[in-house]
Protein: DUF1993 domain-containing protein
Organism: Bradyrhizobium macuxiense
Amino acid sequence: MSFYDAVVPAYLQMLNSLTGLLTKAEAYCEARKIEPAVLLGSRLYPDMLPLTKQVQLVCDHASRGCARLTHSEVPSTPDTETTFAELKQRLAKTVDYVKSFTPAQFEGADAKDVTFPVGAGRTMTLKGQQFLSAFSFPNFYFHAVTAHGILRHNGVEIGKRDFLGVS
């Protein structure tokens, strides 16, 4: 399997499944006359980030992960989304961005150095494979599963198949 095949399809699967989760969440709000902002601002615990930020971070980890692994310019996207439609638009733009990468761009990326910020003006450098498996994917999936957990906790009828995007 190529490194491209290990990276891009995984990001795309979850980005697309989150779009489906948000569609179900939006319908849930409409059916139960719940103000969407309530669900979009929901958290699993008071010190955790709300649903909107979880989705934004999933997008950031996918787009920045691809960019860093291919040594492309790292995109910066302002976090301005406040509606389901805006979040789904951000997911769609991220899908398009991730799809824009080619297998050739990932050739040798598993063994190349990837330097990335780790907060407060600090950086870390890892080989591409290590960056993917120890940083990018864990963060990407953490925020995706947290978004799923927020929706499920608030009564949206979703399960594992929805999370995996196979329902």
